[in-house]
Amino acid sequence: MQSLNLNILLIKILSFILLFTHAGYSSAQQDNIRIAAVVNEDIISLFDIQSRIKLYLTTSGIDDTVEVRQRLLPQVLNSLIEEKLKIQEARDKKIEITDKEISNAVSIIEQNNGIKPGEFLQLLEKQGISEVTFYDQIKADVAWLKVVREVLSRDISITEEEVNTVIERLKSNQGSPEYLLAEITLPVVLGARDRDVYDLAISLVERARENIPFPALAQQFSQSPTAAVGGDLGWIAETDLENEIKNAIRKISPGQISDPIRTLTGYSIIALRDKRAIAEPSPLMAAVTLSQIYLPTTGANKIGTDQLNQLSYRIQTEVKGCDQMKKWGDEIGGPGSGNIDLIRIGGLPAEIQSEAANLEIGTPSRPINVPGAILFIMICSKEEDDGLPSPNQVYSRLENEKLDTISKQRLRDLRRQALIDIRL
């Protein structure tokens, strides 16, 4: 059946959807029994397609017109087919998806998009969208993540040599640009017109530039596995980017969205979240041990102004080294005084970071105002950051990259092996 003219089928399906939506056809029973596609043993109804299109339009803010629905149709049908394949694979591998896992996934989506708990479902209800279509999408994403982690990960192996190769490459490219990216991938699937996919990409770029959260758009529209994490690609070296992506990124600044980028398979939209130099040492990544003295300015242990000024002067002029700093803290300091084990400067409170980053070992800091006290710190030891990730960090990165590759390959295999019947 896949040899049928999909353009004609999709146009026919669209005509039904438009009839239901714009001509006032309201029989949910009729919608449910009309079959748009069969994926192995599972059915996709016209009601499923209609509901998902409405969900896409609601979450993106794109105008609801006949032309927009026509552009969305191939993408929506493709998404629903892939979701069926993901659920089927999880079922075949005897992987269960619990209500708690789905609820946690919904909570993460709400948090990432600045939405209060339950607010998104209220929006769907207000727009007349069944929450089932949203939960079905989340269930497929959760199921696939579990398939990847519990099944596909067994085929992943990473050697010490691979880790060392990455570290050596980072050393050789140290100082070169790398980018923190997110993506929306829109393939030109079978039955879709290139122009329709491009127009959809343009609409999404406009919405993203109008401050619709990029992760929300990616979760709904992107056809990449990264859609489950809001399109997040992490840090990628410029040398690892395709030329089309690289050229587009060079034209924008952090916080901006690219124009649609034509790739071999369709169109990509890139959000440039940040930019830095590869393996560039950061003062905030330096690891230090500290000794500190708190001089309380409020509460029962409050120190008077005159005594506070006197103690502050003596700490800065008389204390030499961490042993003496610790002793003074025990004698005159309030609660919280004493030594702090190894910590990265970036892990310290913001008001302390800049002072710690520029402080010489064994030298008391200037007075630092913190809530309820005046604070003095002293660096006892310091391990400068060399900018390079640890072997464990490299291992995790390689693992994620390989899982992403094998995930895409498995989904392609499932689609190729499946019996997919698109019909009326």
Overall description:
There is one protein chain. By secondary structure, this protein is an alpha+beta fold. The chain has 15 helices and twelve strands. Strands 3, 4, 5, 6 and 7 form a five-stranded antiparallel sheet that branches. It is elongated, with a radius of gyration of 28 Å.
Q: Which features would summarize this protein structure in a list?
A:
5-stranded antiparallel β-sheet, alpha+beta, single chain, 15 helices, 4-stranded antiparallel β-sheet, 50% helix, 424 residues, disordered N terminus
Quick synopsis:
The protein is of the alpha+beta class.
Secondary structure layout plus pairing:
Blueprint: H1 6-22, H2 28-33, E1 35-39, E2 42-45, H3 46-60, H4 66-92, H5 99-112, H6 119-126, H7 131-150, H8 160-172, E3 177-187, H9 194-209, H10 214-221, E4 232-237, H11 243-249, E5 256-257, E6 261-262, E7 266-277, E8 287-296, H12 305-318, H13 322-332, E9 338-344, H14 350-357, E10 368-370, E11 373-383, H15 391-417, E12 420-422
Helix pairs in contact: 1-3, 1-4, 3-4, 3-10, 4-7, 4-9, 5-7, 8-15
